[in-house]
Design brief:
The protein folds into 3 domains: 176 residues, no CATH class; 148 residues, no CATH class; 179 residues, Glycogen Phosphorylase B (Rossmann fold, 3-Layer(aba) Sandwich). The protein contains 23 helices and 15 strands. α18 links the parallel β13 and β14. α3 packs parallel to α4, α3 packs across α5 and α19 runs antiparallel to α22. The longest helix is centred in the N-terminal third of the chain and has 33 residues. The chain is globular, with a radius of gyration of 25 Å.
Length: 580
């Protein structure tokens, strides 16, 4: 039978008259009906084993800082300016944190395909406009990086780089419209921001630092303002759309000269593709951004944020150009030893975290800031509930970065274990099981796959996560992330099912994981979890309220930087008052 290779996981590229070889495993995210119609083959991920993840992380981290150094020289020359390394790090860091692992993953994916299936000449790709790999800005880049058509262009660029081996013949098909609609700033939010600015001026509130998008609960912002005159704004003046549909790139024959690190062939490819993919906001439209920020008259010397320095290019350029002191803040509940190649602590004046063992000179450990006003079950209220909430993961179709936890391609393997777990549960427990997907797209069609496997399935319809938890007798997690920290803090009986040997954690984290296993909170075997629930569901407090389990729960919360709310609030307010 004839073979063809498809570079995007789209039904429109599949053909019943061929064996359809997919470049990556996310082809199995298509609907069950579509998958049954076609003959499909796909390779396993090169990141199947933790040993390679750890090895690659070390290499990519070294490559990240080497590329940054070379980009500083290139962009200073290109723009005829003299920004120092830290200024460019603030601007480029978030993009480099993603583009380097993305390109390495796609490169290694092609290598794995070659080893398993050889070289397939007939290749079907989406039809894309010219210069489609170039993004307007960081937000546009992140949106594109999860699109099938953009990734197909990346895979094509790798195959073309290796053209002598492949001798490809491409056939193009349109799979969907190539467009980007940037979210418009809410008129209500703009109005609120103007009102807050009015109050700031009216009460002569000190503006020695910017306090924005820091992930506190709303109650904290109200109390900080009304009791302590500490004001947080959105700073919508940085949300202006100035990069879309401006200068078109002219990057023919441009190459970034990179210092060799380890893998010559990949790094030669990288030197060409980085210049092609760098967003307009850092190249052709950079001067336009610079001219705009001159109109922004904010005198604050310090910037405190958890998100804005990461996602907003205009804000990054302003912070870097004006040499503001950036105080960046962690915003999740993960247990990774480091993430984003530890770059936040490198380019920040101060870096706030809450569960790091190793503290750098500029690093501050403060309590988790999104749980200060969170309600807890103090009197076993969960005993009057019956709901078992199974929290489904947010998994991208293709890797964006190297994470220690549930990886995108592992979802389908885990799915089989979740179904096996459900089948072992007693029938009188199954009726209380509710599957909950968070506020993100179901790109792997998990809900559809669950429907096909489980009759009379219950899906949680409650939009508010906290309200849903208040109806729970037990919460089941598939990763040790923010939601697990939240339920542990709220004292809701919580368990985790994951088959993962961590590779990016500290010795202290490893000790906590051993304790969680010892308390029957963390499970690596779905059968053991099902038997545990069958045994304790009716009298769940016999397990959850035992001295051993509660002690380990508190140990985990202390490790995670989640003390009692009064202490956490006091520490944060003291920090904000002294920040200068």
């Amino acid at each position: 039978m004839k073979k063809k290779l498809i570079l995007a996981s789209s039904k429109k590229l599949l053909d019943k008259n061929y064996i359809n070889y997919s470049i990556s495993r996310d082809i199995y995210s298509l609907s069950h009906k579509d998958l049954k119609k076609f003959r499909i083959k796909a390779p396993h991920s090169h990141w199947k084993y933790n040993q390679k993840k750890k090895k690659d992380y070390i290499y990519l981290k070294k490559l990240y800082y080497s590329v940054l150094k070379d980009l500083v020289k290139y962009l200073n020359s290109y723009h005829s300016i003299r920004y120092n390394r830290n200024q460019w790090h603030i601007i480029l860091g978030p993009w480099l944190n993603y583009i380097i692992p993305i390109l390495w993953d796609r490169w290694e994916t092609v290598n794995v395909f070659e080893k398993k299936f050889g070289y397939i000449k007939n290749i079907v790709i989406p039809e894309n406009p010219k210069d489609y790999l170039v993004s307007y800005d960081f937000i546009n880049f992140i949106e594109k990086s999860q699109r099938q058509d953009w990734n197909a262009e990346i895979f094509k660029s790798i195959i073309d780089f290796k053209k002598k081996k492949w001798s490809p013949v491409y056939k193009k098909k349109k799979i969907y419209n190539n467009y980007f609609v940037k979210k418009k700033s809410s008129k209500l939010l703009n109005t609120i921001d103007k009102i807050l600015l009015f109050f700031q001026k009216l009460f002569l509130i000190r503006d020695n630092y910017i306090f924005t998008k820091t992930n506190f609960e709303k109650k904290f912002y109200f109390e900080a303002f009304f009791k302590h005159l500490i004001i947080s704004r959105l700073y919508t003046e940085f949300d202006k759309d100035i990069n879309v549909n401006l200068n078109r790139p002219d990057r023919k024959d441009k190459t970034l000269i990179l210092k060799p690190v380890k893998f010559k062939s990949f790094e030669n490819y990288l030197s060409k593709i980085l210049i092609i993919t760098i967003p307009l906001s850092y190249m052709e439209n950079f001067k336009i951004n610079l001219n705009y920020i001159k109109k922004i008259k904010i005198k604050s010397k310090i910037v405190l944020t958890a998100f804005k320095h990461h996602e907003n290019d205009l804000f990054k350029i302003w912070v870097a150009n004006e040499k503001k002191k950036l105080v960046s803040c962690l915003h999740g509940g993960n247990i990774e030893k480091e993430f984003f190649f530890d770059s936040w602590s490198k380019y920040s004046y101060k870096y706030i975290s809450w569960n790091k063992d190793k503290l750098y000179k500029n690093q501050i450990n403060l309590p988790v800031n999104f749980l200060i006003f969170r309600k807890k079950f103090e009197n076993k209220e969960y005993l009057y509930k019956d709901k078992i909430i199974f929290l489904l993961p947010h998994a991208e179709l293709k890797p964006l970065r190297l994470v220690d936890g549930l990886f995108c391609f592992e979802v389908l393997e885990c799915f089989d274990r979740w179904i096996s777990f459900y089948k072992i549960l007693d029938d009188n427990k199954k009726k209380f099981m509710y599957w909950r997907l968070g506020p993100f797209p179901d790109e792997w069609r998990i809900l559809e796959k669950l429907k096909n496997k489980i009759q009379n399935i219950n899906f949680s319809k409650e939009k508010n996560f906290e309200k849903d938890l208040l109806k729970a007798r037990l919460s089941i997690h598939v990763d040790i992330q923010t939601t697990f920290l939240e339920t542990m803090y709220m004292n809701i009986p919580s368990v985790v099912i994951m088959n993962n040997n961590f590779w990016n954690i500290s010795k202290k984290s490893l000790l906590i994981l051993k304790k969680l296993k010892n308390a029957n909170i963390l499970f690596n075997n779905h059968k053991d979890l099902a038997n545990h629930i069958n045994k304790y569901y009716s009298n769940i407090d016999d397990w959850w309220e035992s001295k051993k389990v509660q002690k380990i729960r508190l140990d985990y919360l202390r490790y995670s930087g989640a003390p009692r709310s009064v202490k956490a609030k006091k520490e944060w307010l003291n920090f904000l008052k002294k920040l200068n």
